[in-house]
Amino acid sequence: MQRRKFIDETLKKVRTLLLAPSLLTGACNKEEVVHSNDKTVIVIGAGISGLAAAQKLKEKGFNVIVLESQNKVGGRLRTNRSLGIAFDEGASWIHGINGNPITTLAQAAGMNTYETVDDQADSCYDIGGVLRSAAAYDKAEKELYTILDTMMKHGSAGQSFETVFNSLYPEKTKDRLWRFLLSTYVTFDTGDLNKLSSTLYNEGEEFSGVEKMATNGYDTIPNYLAKGLTIQLNQRVSKIDYSNPNIKVTHNGRESEADYIVVTVPLGVLKANTIQFTPALTSAKQTAIQKVGMNCVNKFLLTWNTAFWGNTHYICYTPESKDKFNYFVNINTFNPSANALMTFAYADYARKTETMTDAQVIGEIMSHLKDIYGTGIPTPVNMVRTQWQTNENSFGAYSYTAVGTEMRHFNDLAESINNKVFFAGEHTHIDYFSTAHGAYLSGLREAEKIIAL
């Protein structure tokens, strides 16, 4: 899924659901008449999928209780403001604004956005601080998209993206620019290249239009969706017993009962098997949980007293190592007083950073910046970071099509059990997995299933 190359043609799939007024939930719809019923729904997880489901169900008169393991709503839509800057630890961008439900939702929630311009070719540095030719960058980028459009024809179900790419283009594996492109355009958007499916890496639909980045925090959306809901924070669910007509949910050592339950925990939590299901989940669902991959992307925000870099939105660096602090977002382009850069680590190197101290991480980041701008640049005064792989509320960043994944597995993850236990989250949306909009739409989908009953 190429999130930086949005097609301008109309998506082939019908968008009736996506464009429906119901996308703007009852958080701001005061005119609809609500008829209460005697059915209780427990939603596990106050991320965007859980909140979307809860709001829709509340609109239809259900008694809805949301259980959230963290101390605030949002799930992976988390914003850290400890440095006086809205640092989005999870999603930062609206990927394609045309027809995207997040576009309308962001406007209603008061989320400010900044259109990000793809100026990477103008600010890409090689080792030694050598500015790469924009023409050479553009040529390689264009060739990459051509390869991504066709390489799956040479892949097979048991081979990884990395294996097939290296066999077809061995000369590119030694090229630092190509390692950068594969890292930031493929690994960032999907998952570990040595585990990524060589036939399904390009699966998933995209919305057309420009990319927009949240500037005052992506958490404005979950905060908006949470209005009026009954949400119990710091409630970790350990068991779901749906063997009887009333479902029993164990959280923090006590039980709550419901007629229906919507499970919206991330795929990584399902993989970790931290929730006991009675009866056990279906074999199809257990297989899907095992086979679909879970990527790790960590983000790092650093601030300085003064900025020493230019005014392009993106700064790229092509080191020998892959997936390692090779891509910087210049926060000053939309917040001139910030003097901040945001950078990333992907896949195995992202996981490695979670074993490193702040000083070690800063040292590695600064080694790249010093190579670009010189050894005389100042040391950052602050840094905040994410650690998604070891975060017990996620165990990773988002799902992807790993070797062994079949597209039906996303539908298996979405399949409800006995019209009692329902599942939502980005990993349950076959078209928009790994995205905030996919998570949101999945929550609405499961709410509609319950309403239809």
UniProtKB/TrEMBL annotation:
Pathway: Plant hormone metabolism; auxin biosynthesis. Its cofactor is FAD. Residues 48-451 form the Amine oxidase domain. It is an enzyme of class 1 (oxidoreductase). Pfam families: Amino_oxidase. One of its GO terms (biological process) is auxin biosynthetic process. It catalyses: L-tryptophan + O2 = indole-3-acetamide + CO2 + H2O. Its EC number is 1.13.12.3. GO terms for molecular function: tryptophan 2-monooxygenase activity. Substrate binds at F344. InterPro entries: Amino_oxidase, FAD/NAD-bd_sf, Flavin_amine_oxidase, Flavin_monoamine_oxidase. Keywords: Auxin biosynthesis, Oxidoreductase. FAD binds at S49, V237. Belongs to the tryptophan 2-monooxygenase family. This is Tryptophan 2-monooxygenase. The lineage of its organism: Bacteria, Pseudomonadati, Bacteroidota, Cytophagia, Cytophagales.
